[in-house]
TrEMBL record:
Keywords: Leucine-rich repeat, Ubl conjugation pathway. SMART domains: LRR_CC. This is F-box domain-containing protein. PROSITE patterns: FBOX (PS50181). It holds the Pfam family LRR_6. It comes from Micrurus lemniscatus lemniscatus.
């Protein structure tokens, strides 16, 4: 029965608690509240407080929230007090995904110190954020950071988080304030980065130089929809651990350079060339030149990091 209730959305789980005392006890089982996704509905801070006090404490590990940033009727979902309470009462919380929330009044120090994964989608953030607070033991040590369409996210934000030296995964999509200068500044601080996605960003060839120079531990690199030319791609030659390279919609690259660079990547297993206007015989030549690599030219990247 517990497994069946686990399939219900959080709102319905709370509802079935009214059926009988047995179900009331069942719904409070910690197993049901380890991974909570509230992104499909818009809730108020009052409801979130209720969930925290009655269900989340001691069990919550991942949480997804959606605000009302783009709604005509604004509704407060997350408050500074709520965020701090999550950190105190949910010590196992390691992943937080926030969507369509206005965070401009929040201090970064309010973030739960247990967080290792932070995802922001279509959010507003302060122009000064991600700095390490004066009390180092209280700030989150973020290993995976995903920023999707957050207009204020800038080179300085990226530098603030990169200098903490904990990032393993960095996904940036539609953040136009990130430039080659920003990648140059953070490169020396991202030597242990394994997964990098820079999609629909304002970066070009010079950023590739610093990626190739400093980020030798990369396993996955997604550069879709960027102004990348052959000169920039050549800077990625020889990355020893790169297993997946996505060049989707990078239409300024020549097939000859793609083949030369990919042949220099000893660990390459997956190459995405979707939405690049090459003839079929060109794709065939690339495939023949990379016998140990799967080359895609019609479908999207299928792993969980794929960015549309």
């Amino acid at each position: 029965l517990l497994q069946i209730v686990a399939w219900l959305p959080p709102r319905d789980r709370v509802g079935v608690a009214r059926v009988c005392k047995r179900w009331h006890r069942l719904v409070r089982d910690n197993f049901l509240w380890r991974h909570v996704d509230l992104s499909s509905c818009r809730i108020s801070s009052k409801i979130l407080w209720h969930l925290l006090r009655n269900y989340f404490q001691g069990s919550l590990q991942t949480l997804k929230l959606r605000g009302s940033l783009f709604s005509f009727r604004k509704q407060e979902v997350l408050t500074s007090a709520l965020l701090q309470a999550l950190g105190k009462q949910c010590p196992k919380l390691h992943q937080l995904s926030l969507m369509e929330l206005d965070l401009r009044s929040f201090q970064y120090g309010y973030m739960p110190s247990s967080l290792t994964t932070l995802e922001l989608r279509c959010c507003e953030i302060p122009f000064v954020w991600f700095q390490v607070p004066e009390t180092p033991c209280t700030f989150p040590r973020i290993q995976q950071l995903s920023i999707w369409n957050v207009p204020a996210f800038s080179n300085q934000h990226l530098l603030n988080i990169a200098t903490q030296g904990t990032l393993k995964t960095l996904i940036l999509s539609k953040v136009y304030r990130i430039t080659d200068v920003g990648i140059q500044a953070v490169g020396p601080h991202l030597k242990d980065l394994q997964h990098l996605a820079l999609c629909h960003c304002s970066i070009g060839d010079s950023a590739m130089h610093f990626i190739g120079r400093h980020m030798k531990q990369l396993h996955h690199l997604d550069l879709r929809s960027n102004s990348l030319t052959d000169a920039g791609l050549l800077c990625l030659s020889g990355l020893p651990n790169l297993g997946t390279l996505c060049l989707r919609d990078c239409g300024q690259l020549s097939p000859e350079t793609i083949l030369i660079v990919c042949q220099s990547l000893p660990s390459l297993k997956h190459l995405d060339l979707s939405r690049i206007d090459f003839e079929d015989k060109i794709f065939q030549k690339i495939r023949l030149g990379l016998p140990n690599c799967t080359v895609a030219n019609t479908i999207l990247c299928t792993d969980s990091s794929a960015i549309s």
